[in-house]
């Protein structure tokens, strides 16, 4: 598994397309992993770090930069899907509503969606907007797993507290995967665990 992971995550990764409406979605031949979370939580940075690329997914310090559902082909084996950040209030209400509708239409209706990774800033924990997003995932029965980001920004004792806190909060949610992952895109911490989770999920799906 380790060798396969190293080869795959150091190999081909290409941006396929950015989608703004359901009729633009690619085919369902490959399993998909969607990355969701509040604006500026580090979705694009994590995607780049997982693939050891700096410019695969566009990153920005400006919240709301990702305004499309962006698809990336990972070695012809599966896809990563970068979702627009939720909870960004500076964009127009109409635009925010359109993003939200597109995101959850995609999440509810995608048969090859293997898992949604919900990214949570380890410094702040779950916010009300995260709870709202998770409630929709629970309602749609879409499997999701939390990844704490930016763990290099907090002390180990604070991280341990946060992991316990979030795990307890997720235990009440029917569609949440019980294991909480923790990562730092900047320092590379926890990335191998995320990669391993992706590969084992793909292998299980293929049977």
Mean pLDDT: 87
For the largest beta-sheet, the strand count, sense and barrel status come to: 7 strands, mixed
Give, in spatial order, the strands making up the sheet with the most strands.
1-3-4-2-5-6-7
Would you tell me which CATH topology applies? Rossmann fold
- What is the top-level CATH class? Alpha Beta
Order of helices and strands: HEEHEEHEHEHEH
CATH architecture: 3-Layer(aba) Sandwich
Poorly predicted ranges: 60-65
What's the shape? globular
Number of helices: 6
How many discrete domains?
Answer: 1
CATH homologous superfamily title: P-loop containing nucleotide triphosphate hydrolases
Ends apart, CA distance between termini: 16 Å
Radius of gyration: 16 Å
- How many strand segments? 7
- Strand percentage lies at 15-25%
Outline the structure in words.
- There is one protein chain.
- This protein has 207 residues and is of the alpha/beta class.
- It has helices spanning 2-8, 43-50, 93-109, 128-140, 156-170, 191-206, and strands at residues 13-19, 31-37, 69-74, 78-82, 113-121, 144-149, 181-182.
- A seven-stranded mixed β-sheet has the order 1-3-4-2-5-6-7, with helices on both faces.
- It is globular and about 45 Å long.
- The model is unreliable at 60-65 (pLDDT under 50).
């Amino acid at each position: 598994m380790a060798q396969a992971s190293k080869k795959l995550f150091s190999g081909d990764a290409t941006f396929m397309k950015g989608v703004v409406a359901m009729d633009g979605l690619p085919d369902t031949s490959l399993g998909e992993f969607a990355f969701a979370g509040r604006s500026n939580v580090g979705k694009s940075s994590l995607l780049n770090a997982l693939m050891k690329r700096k410019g695969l997914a566009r990153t920005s310090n400006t919240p709301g930069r990702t305004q499309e559902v962006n698809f990336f082909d990972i070695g012809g084996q599966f896809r990563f899907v970068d979702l627009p950040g939720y909870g960004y209030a500076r964009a127009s209400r109409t635009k925010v509503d359109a993003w939200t509708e597109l995101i959850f239409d995609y999440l509810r209706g995608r048969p090859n969606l293997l898992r949604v990774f919900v990214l949570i800033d380890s410094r702040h924990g779950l916010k009300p907007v995260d709870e709202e997003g998770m409630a929709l995932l629970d309602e749609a029965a879409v499997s999701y797993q939390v990844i704490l980001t930016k763990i290099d920004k907090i002390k180990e004792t604070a991280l341990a507290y946060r992991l316990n806190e979030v795990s307890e909060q997720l235990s009440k949610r029917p569609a949440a995967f019980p294991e909480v992952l923790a990562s730092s895109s900047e320092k590379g911490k926890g990335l191998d665990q995320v990669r391993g989770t992706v590969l084992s999920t793909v292998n299980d799906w293929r049977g």
